[in-house]
Each structure stands twice: as C-alpha cells, then as structure tokens.
Amino acid sequence: MQHAVGSPLPPPHQPGHGPALGWSPAAHHPGPHPGAPQGPAPVPPPPPAPVYPGPPPHPAPAPSHVPGPDATGHIPPPPAGATAPGAPPAPDPATTTLAVLLIGPAGAGKTSVAKYWADHRRVPTAHISLDDVREWVRSGFADPQSGWNDNSEAQYRLARRTCGFAARNFLANGISCILDDAVFPDRPVVGLGGWKRHVGPGLLPVVILPGLDIVLERNAERTGNRRLTDEEVARIHGRMAGWYGSGLPIIDNSQLDIPETARVLDEVLARSIASPPTW
C-alpha cells in the first residue's frame, strides 16, 4: 500500500484507535495530513488511503439515522422514574412467595399468628416453628429452663440451621414460609445475622411486641416446658424492647386478636416489600 509522501504510516490497530463511529473513510479530505512537511512535488501517487488515527479535518456530517440497538450492542436505559410499557405491578404480599421471620418474646402470640397467617394465604405457605424443631430431640433434650449451658446452646443453633435448611427448600419449590423465634436485638450475630445466613437476604423480619401485662397473661396459659416464670418473661420482654428504634417493623398486638394481627402483618409486609428494612 502506498501513502502520500511525508504522511506518517498508519499505526497498528489498537482498541479505541479505529475510525470514529459514523465516520466513513470516503468522507476524509483527499490530500496529505494537515501537519505533514512540504517537499518537492512528487510523482502523483494513487489516491491516498485515510490517515489514522485522528478525526477528519472537517467535522463529519451527522448520520442520517440513529443506529439501532444491534449497531453497538448497547441499549440505553430509560430515563429515571420511567416505567416500561407493560411493566408488572408491584408484588402482592398475599400472593407472593415470601420468607418471613416473626420475632417476639414468649407469650407474644407469634406462633399462633404465624399458624393463622400460613393457614389463610392464597398461595402455598409453610409454618416453621423453632420450638417445634428444637423439640425433635427426645433423648438428651437440653431444656434451657433446667439451666442454660453449652448443650442447650448447641441444640438451639442446630434447630435454627435446620429451620433455615427447611425454609430454603420450601422457597426453592415455590412455597412461602414463616418462621418464629425469640430473637434478641442485643445479639445480632446469633439472631438476625444467623437467620439471614440460614434463609437468605430476602428474609423479612417483623417484631410482635405487646405490653408486658399481656405477655404475662398469655404465658400463664401455657403448659409444659414452654411456660416460663414471670421473672423470666419480664426479663425477655425487657430485652425485646431494644427493637424499638432498630428500623424493623413492630406490631403491638395488645388489643388485637389473631386474625386482626395477621391482617396487620400483611399490611406491614406490603410496606416491607416496597421498601425493605435495613438490618
């Protein structure tokens, strides 16, 4: 290939050094590069090839059409706040596959509310109770009421992991789940952090926290190892108060029955889906 006398040779092609988009080599000014040194008049050569790199001496005319998405492989995003035609509406919590963690002290009614909520959904939903799974251990069951120790702590951790495995399995098969546990705000790694690792980042935590008098009254109706002393109930309830100001949604169901609490739970979940809490 021949080039005009005094014109630099085109460098090897490198990424980003090709012709500008929309610039046709035929549109380049025929003649030596504007900065080329002058010399004796040469024998007229064939028409010179375009000189690279650099833009043409004169601005290239605007293309007569806008390249389609296939021209560059890039589709520009829509303007902020724009909604694509036919975009699906916001998810309905009553029909969406969800993973919910219901938090509350003993006697808050979280297990009863979780069962009712799961029973009355329009999509398949499972209730996974930590206490039920913990009590799968028959021989060698470590009851914290007999004294909290390494064995009871290990069985709680095992039960939480088992609940998390079950929840992920249900969710993978399109079945929602609601779990209940007395998660303490002053133990984030063991509590919310553990559940988030076991179930996944899409877990929606909701706190049910009625007044202390209501919790004591409900606890008095319990039997077996799930009934706690009044002192223990008051201590747990006091620790649960730390959820106020945490950013998690809190339902005070002191004056609500189970169906009313489940209805409020649906409202809270709708808000959590639209604006997930930071935790």
Overview of this structure, please?
This protein has 279 residues and is α/β, with parallel strands linked by helices. It has a domain at 102-273: P-loop containing nucleotide triphosphate hydrolases (Rossmann fold). Helix content is 31%, strand content 8%. It contains 8 helices and 5 strands. It has a 5-stranded parallel sheet with strand order 2-3-1-4-5, with helices on both faces. The longest helix has 23 residues, at 150-172. Residues 1-10, 12-31, 33-37 and 63-85 have low confidence and may be disordered.
Per DSSP E runs of 2 or more residues, the count of β-strands stands at 5
Rg from C-alpha positions? Answer: 34 Å
Query: Strand order, biggest sheet?
Result: 2-3-1-4-5
Biggest sheet: strands, sense, closure?
5 strands, parallel
CATH architecture classification of the domain at 102-273: 3-Layer(aba) Sandwich
CATH level 3 topology of the domain at 102-273: Rossmann fold
Mean pLDDT: 76
Q: Terminal Cα separation, in Å?
A: 67 Å
Approximate helicity band: 25-40%
Low-confidence stretches are: 1-10, 12-31, 33-37, 63-85
Q: What is the helix tally? A: 8
What is the fourth-level CATH superfamily of the domain at 102-273?
Answer: P-loop containing nucleotide triphosphate hydrolases
Category from helices, strands and their pairing: alpha/beta
Instruction: Name the helix and strand elements from N-terminus to C-terminus, one letter apiece.
Output: HEHEHHEHEHHEH
Estimate the global geometry from the Cα principal axes. Answer: globular
- Report the sheet-strand fraction: 5-15%
